[in-house]
Amino acid sequence: MREQNAELLVLGAGVIGLSCAWRAAQQGLRVTVLDPAPASGASWVAGGMLAPVTEAWPGEEELLALGVESVGRWPAFAAELTEAAGRPAGLRTDGTVVAATGSGDRAELDAVAAHLARLGRPVERLTGRELRRLEPGLGPEVRGGLSVPDDLAVDNRLLLAALRAAGERAGVVFAATGAAGVLDDGARVVGVRGTDGTEWAAPTVLVAAGAHSAELHPALHGLVRPVKGEILRLALRPGAFPMPRRTVRALVDGRPVYLVPRADELVVGATQTEVGFDTTVTVGGIRDLLRDAERILPGIAEYALVESAAGLRPGSPDNLPLIGRLGPEGLLVATGHHRNGMLLAPVTADAVAALLRGEPVPGPVGVADPARFVPAAPRR
Amino acid sequence: MREQNAELLVLGAGVIGLSCAWRAAQQGLRVTVLDPAPASGASWVAGGMLAPVTEAWPGEEELLALGVESVGRWPAFAAELTEAAGRPAGLRTDGTVVAATGSGDRAELDAVAAHLARLGRPVERLTGRELRRLEPGLGPEVRGGLSVPDDLAVDNRLLLAALRAAGERAGVVFAATGAAGVLDDGARVVGVRGTDGTEWAAPTVLVAAGAHSAELHPALHGLVRPVKGEILRLALRPGAFPMPRRTVRALVDGRPVYLVPRADELVVGATQTEVGFDTTVTVGGIRDLLRDAERILPGIAEYALVESAAGLRPGSPDNLPLIGRLGPEGLLVATGHHRNGMLLAPVTADAVAALLRGEPVPGPVGVADPARFVPAAPRR
User: Fold this and answer.
1) Which of A365, A374, A377, A375 is nearest to A324 (CA)?
2) Interface of B with A in 299-318 (CB under 8 A)
């Protein structure tokens, strides 16, 4: 066993692993992060919406509450991170509009608005004309929608760079090694075996390996699966219609699409397919994204396509993340964030930091306790 | 003046420059090719169709004759090149089918077929069913078309690598320098000034710089312009419908599209726009290519998009290339090949080799004499 003297090994340098590592190092722990390719997975491909309200879905009220808790933490999180990293965290506070085209799409948005009103979170309904006053690039097919100024966005790539910088400044060690599995003695964690055969000793291990988490300890088997998402990055060209200021989400004949502005790019996403560990960008995926995005913002026809990519979201059985203790003593997990890794990073990192101090997690995080998937001991 | 002892300076290492350099070196000339980025322009992006018949257009009979002459030279050219380079030239001899969808597209193909018959080059008309017997991937919208087995294709990237290798074996020197302009003393060529300020001496200069040719000598001003083309490269994925064997060309609601199979890729092209020296790949261009290609070969929806790129074809005022002497003594040009650089490479290289020996060019190349653009001296 190679002695690393780490008190905490974090498996995975995506947005969740990096956020948790930074927070843990802030409270004095010696932290090592293992990732063969930091910040290169789903977090790198992400759209970066911080959008609990426009992600809300009847029946997923616990996820909405968790998201609202986390988006509320985002401005302070971003400010602290910017200060700690010495570089921008990438938060954008221009808000979100949701656009609908056909009558079916408008009825769907009506149902979401009514649902949110019942939950005490009313959103503003707007006509097509009112929406175009906010975002003049919206096309003539947009007949109505919502304004949700509190649904924010983050430039995921700025964020990842800032998290890594802040972690390094706080003493986090990064090792470009893959993890093959968590090692335990049957009762408690003793370390991690790397894909190169080396072993890393530590009393506590945090699995934050996104869609790959289920491979790393038997307690996670079956709890996380890859959900592929394809995404495009467009760049404004001279003479083309300006980018939207806000995040634009839309329903186009029932298909969701979003367009998230950056300083210099417009991110268009995202397909959602379950085809295992496949990150191929398909013709059909790009065709769908371009078709639907152009119907919402026709001016993008003159934009440049600068990148197409696919990432693997970590899906869980109930669409809620897994944040907490699971399996042997010393094993922590923070994964299964599905479409919401960027959004939930602040509250997840605060929850993991609390667990490392032996304190309870913030209230709304309770629903993410992985214990919900552990079968109760049979009654005798 | 830097003394290079070159007898021939070739400006441009695309398919035309490389072919001419190889042929010139074969007949004993000391040849230097100048290009800051060899094989990276329109030739790198090209679809690689060797298709004079399916490119035929009423009113362009001279171009058809030139193309037929060159495609006839292709098999021997490819065999000789493969031998000389010690690597494959990339020729594919599976032929071409042309597919039409709507009645307007079928009428257009009827007109092309009648035109070719009048020229004594009959092509085989096929029903949709007969076409699908040849290429089972053709979609249900394909209602009829043509079979043109003598229209071939070449893997442009294999070809470029083979041409460079054959050139090097024949003694061609490659200099990674851009050319700023041809130098002459008013009566004859003395060399070339590089973009880095160095000067190269030579008694003969061949301008083969594609869309950039017009910048290199005043005699070429206004004779070559960039015609942008966007193209996609798709890759077959496990479980997807197999690639076509033949080149598939099609008219979809009047828009031409082609799909050219390689060993491991399917090339889909090409848009055609005149927007100056711009090689941005646009959302609108990709949307058009994918939409039209999928209507012809629906199975490509499951293919991977592995590359999107744009190249600048060298357009001429009359769609015929410029091959021959122009301006001061010692200046040769081989440019303006527009969509037909790959096709016309063998006959162009043979013509330039003949000119370097002081012999006449092959008959059909006469129409490409740049002298057609030189105003006759005013009568006194």
Assistant:
1) A365
2) 300-305, 308
The verdict on B283 touching A (C-beta cutoff 8 Å) is: yes
At B15-70, the pLDDT tens digits run: 999 999 999 999 999 999 999 999 999 999 999 999 999 888 888 899 999 999 99
Q: In chain A, at which residue ranges do the beta strands (DSSP E only) sit?
A: 8-11, 31-34, 49-50, 91-92, 96-100, 124-127, 144-148, 152-154, 173-175, 179-184, 189-194, 199-201, 204-207, 225-235, 247-252, 255-261, 266-269, 304-315, 322-325, 331-335
Nearest residue in chain A measured CA to CA from B292: A287
Could you give the angle at the alpha carbon of B373 between the alpha carbons of B370 and B374, nearest 5°? 95
Q: How many CB atoms lie within 10 A of CB A186?
A: 5
Rg (CA), chain A: 21
Buried b (16+ CB within 10 A) or exposed e, B237-266: eeebeebbebbbbbbbeeebbbbbbbeebb
Structure tokens at A268: 């268009």
Complex prediction ipTM: 0.85
Instruction: Summarize pLDDT for A259-293 with one digit per residue, the tens.
Output: 999 998 999 999 999 999 999 999 999 999 999 99
Give every CB contact of residue A253 below 8 A, 6+ residues apart in sequence: A101, A102, A104, A105, A292
* B379, amino acid identity: R
- Which residues in chain A are contacts of B300 at CB distance < 8 A? 283
Fold of B96-148+226-315: D-Amino Acid Oxidase; Chain A, domain 2 (3.30.9)
User: Mean pLDDT across the stretch A192-204?
Assistant: 96
Q: Taken in order B91, B92, B95, B97, is the CA torsion positive or negative?
A: negative
CATH number for B8-45+158-224+318-373 (one of 3.30.70.100, 3.40.718.10, 3.50.50.60, 3.40.50.80): it is: 3.50.50.60
Q: Which of B155, B156, B150, B138 has its CA nearest to residue B96?
A: B150
Task: State pTM to two decimals.
Answer: 0.90
DSSP symbol at A93: -
Task: Provide mean pLDDT across the span B218-247.
Answer: 96
Quick one: A376 exposed, middle or buried, by C-beta within 10 A (0-12, 13-18, 19+)? exposed
Give how far B298 is from chain A: nearest CA, Å: 10
Q: If you count them, how many residues does chain A have?
A: 380
Of A34-43, A108-117, A125-134, B225-234, the least confident? A108-117
Distance from CA of B258 to the nearest CA of A (A): 16
What residues form DSSP beta bridges with B247?
Answer: B96
Q: Is the dihedral of CA A16, A17, A21, A24 positive or negative?
A: positive
Residue B159 in contact with partner chain A when CB distance is under 8 A:
no
Predicted pLDDT at A182: 98
Give dist(CA A139, CA A131) in Å, integer.
10
H/E element holding B168? helix B156-169
In chain A, ranges of CATH 3.50.50.60 domains:
8-45+158-224+318-373
